[in-house]
Amino acid sequence: MSKKTIHTILTEAANTVSLSVSEKETMRERMAEYIAYNPIRPPRAAPQKSFGSFFDTFTFRYVPAFIIAGLVFSGAGVSYAAEGALPGDLLYPVKLNINEEIVSVLTADPIDRAVWEATRAERRLFEVSALAKEGLLTNEAIAIATDSFAEQAERAVKNVAELSKNDPASAAEVTAELESAFETHEMILASLSADASDSDVKSIAAQARKEAKRVAMIRAEVESSIVPEDTAAMAKGMDTMAMSAPSTSDEEQSEKADAKTQKAAAKMKEAAHRALVKFTEQAQVHQGEAEVAGLLAELDAELLLGTDRFTAGAYAEAYRHFRTVVSKSTRGARVLEAEERLQIALPIGEEWEEAGEAPEVPDDTPSVNPEAPSIEGATNAKSSAQAVFTALDNVAVAELSTSDMAQFKRSIKEARAYMVRGDLAVGGGDGYEALRLYERAIEKATAILKNVEGTSTSSPVVVDDPEAVLVANTVHHSQLNGVHVYEGLVRTPTPCYEVTADTVTPRSGQITLVVKWKEIGGMCAQSAAEKQFSASRSARESDMLTTVYVGGKKIEAFKVLEISNEPVITASGTATTAMEGFIAPADELLKRVNGMLENVTGS
Amino acid sequence: MGNQEERFLAAFEDHADALFRHASFRISDRERAKDLVQDAYLKTWGYVVKGNVVEDYKSFLYRTLNNLIIDEYRRKSTDSLDAMLESEKVTEGAFEDLVIDGREEIEIAVDAKWVSTLVTEMPEQYQRVVVMRFMDGLSPKEIADILGDNVNAVSVRIHRGIGWLKRRIEEQT
Question: Does residue B80 have a pLDDT over 60?
Fold first, then answer.
């Protein structure tokens, strides 16, 4: 045997493997057959009813392709036709009880099984969207859809829970994706029911949200066993430093935990990579859309960051980065698919991390109750949102061009979808989430209002509540050991008002102040009065007041005056309002500094 | 037959053999490799059917097949995962390691068939790139595009993969 370089040997080895002529011929025939079965439809076509094509990106992941391919290619005509059936169709039971059930029965691997049952639950939600979109939601269909989803979600959750006992790392991966999928479907359904008073769709959306929470709980539990909390890891680090000679068993244990986290992070990395590739493929038709491109870039960076942390041995951190990629990619891919099939506009990448997460408990004050914001606080935000929507209803849009009008309507629909989701959250008793969603609705609706004001020549009717006055638009702030106190004055139309204030943390590092009042009745002098309010909150020292509501209205530019009399400038809302908020107090600051300088030079 | 169908079928004629070879080396199960290649094509067609356009069939198919193979690994035991973890510990981007043009290669006399077996035993992370580079004849740039990685990392992994093979060959000859 002559001597060769390893590269040559490898190339030679490659030549020893190939498809036989007959193998290739068989495959070629299958391809042709498959193409004939699945002809191309025009790009971005109107949604079709075939919602369950086995090979679409939604419904097909690890499920053994050969099982499904077998079904399709076996010439089982009914089975094939049933794939496109929707609740209420004659063939729908065939789809559920034969097609899908066969796959369930033949899928023995617990991971595949969990994924498939999750996929099935998702398919149920897609069917509802398809029906809703096409106006086919009869009472019968909705009853079948509701039952099917409830049953399937139960199976999916059960399978995931089962998997979490034996294979937590895989369970973490499946739950991350499933949670995100359920949440996205909730958003899709809410968006579909936003302009119709479609209580049935809303109730299924609420169900999806409930299931998302259940999955989130399983995920949290799984993660607690495989990924140490940041704080715990830090504490561990400090302990190790403090102790001169850690006992061997401790070291062993921590090594074991590390290995577990490492494995989980590696799994999540694979999942992140896969999810991102899927999303990227999906996004190819959306090239040039800034929102999509932005999210892709963000996720690429997140993946890199995760890989970097992984290489550095910070597995828990890496795990979180990868999980974010999984959640966001899952959502992105589904949103794009839904947009394409249902022809609706959905927000693709904003505020994802915050969704569904509980308000953060400050690290340094563990004894303080994390305090869930009351439903009442959310209701308050809702009334402000409603006020903005009323303003939008009254706005003069007659002069808008047709394209502007379409955009206007689409945006309103999008904003209203947040309202619907807020309502759903209230229904689910989740005050925090409701507040967040209502705030989002306000933000969106306000942005539309501003936009219309810019394009329309006649001035819109803005609902202006003369009672809503924060005196001098100023909130006084003091802070000691992480306890923030906010105080201020509110002008009420008569003295017979009771004023209360509350705070919430809609997202990490940000504080929202909600000032409410109600009339207490009785005999009252008809003259305005100023009432004091005060609210406190335990949070990190660095946390900032970012939003203020007074009497259900968002104060666009407010000042925060530190009790030490140093003005700190805060502004909320868009960049322009931030600027507006900035300019006025900056002048004030300048005056103050000049005054101080004069004093110094004068003395 | 429309243009898309023709392009797709042409992509089948052009790449099916190479994809099959790739899959065979990666999972060392001929029948399963056939299934996966077929799945990769069907999924790709599913993507086209939805109104998407595949610009570059070669890399799209490789990417799809690669994902299917990763799924396949997940289905197997955790062996491959451990192997992957092992290789993940390797810090990437050591530039002095980046000599992969073969000039430093020693010449050896071994049977190509035996090397094929060795390739199927390689740690997944190395195997993927080595198969792509030498069996499939893809350039490091093409591999990087398919894997969504950077060229340096890919080159380093190829180099380490070759190192792994060499050690195995030396041990056993």
Answer: no
A561: three-class secondary structure by DSSP: strand
Mean pLDDT of A349-376: 43
Instruction: Locate the chain B residue with the closest alpha carbon to A21.
Output: B17
Measure the CA–CA gap between B138 and B56, rounded to whole angstroms: 14
Q: Exposure of B79 by Cβ count < 10 A (0-12 exposed, 13-18 middle, 19+ buried)?
A: exposed
Is residue A362 helix, strand or coil?
coil
A315-342 vs A248-283: helix axis angle to the nearest 10? 20
User: Which among A24, A38, A285 has CB closest to B45?
Assistant: A38
In this complex, is the C-beta atom of A589 within 8 Å of any C-beta atom belonging to chain B? no
What is the mean pLDDT of the segment spanning A150-162? 91
Burial class (CB in 10 A: 0-12, 13-18, 19+), A366: exposed
State the average pLDDT for chain A.
72
pLDDT in tens, A161-173: 999 888 888 899 8
Choose between A135 and B104: higher pLDDT: A135
Over residues A179-229, the pLDDT tens digits come to: 989 988 888 888 887 655 567 788 888 888 888 889 998 998 888 888 876
Residues pairing with A469 in the sheet: A491
Q: pLDDT-derived band of residue A573, with 50, 70 and 90 as boundaries?
A: very low
The distance of A263 to chain B (nearest Cα, Å) reads 8
**C-alpha span between A14 and B135 (Å, rounded):** 5
Distance CA A28, CA A10 (A): 28
**Radius of gyration for the alpha carbons in chain A, expressed in angstroms and rounded:** 29
pTM: 0.46
The size of chain B, in residues, is 173
Handedness of CA A195, A197, A201, A204 (dihedral sign): positive
DSSP states of A472-534: GGEEEEEEETTEEEEEEEEEESSS-EEEEEEEE-SSTTEEEEEEEEEE--SS--SS-EEEEEE
Residues A60, A537: Cα–Cα separation, whole Å: 47
CB contact under 8 A, B12 and A28: yes
Q: Residue A5: which of B4, B102, B112 has the nearest Cβ?
A: B102
Contact between residue A497 and residue A517 where contact means Cβ atoms under 8 Å apart: yes
Residues 224 through 263 of chain A touching chain B, CB cutoff 8 Å: 262-263
3-class secondary structure per residue, B121-166: CCCHHHHHHHHHHHHCCCCHHHHHHHHCCCHHHHHHHHHHHHHHHH
Tokens of A267: 């799994």
Task: Determine which of A25, A35, A302, A308 to mutate to test the interface with B (most B C-beta atoms within 10 Å).
Answer: A35
pLDDT reported for residue A319: 92
User: What confidence score (pLDDT) does residue A508 get?
Assistant: 66
* pLDDT (mean) for A82-91: 83
Q: Could you tell me if the ipTM is greater than 0.85?
A: no
Is-contact B122 A13, C-beta < 8 A? no
Other beta carbons within 10 Å of A503? 20
Please report where in the chains the tokens 């400050």 appear, as a residue: A362
Average pLDDT (A309-333) is: 89
Cβ-proximal residues to A603 (8 Å cutoff; 6+ apart), any chain: none
A7 and B102 within 8 Å at the Cβ level: the answer is: yes
Distance CA A468, CA A538 (A): 27
* Dist. CA B56–CA A198, nearest whole Å: 44
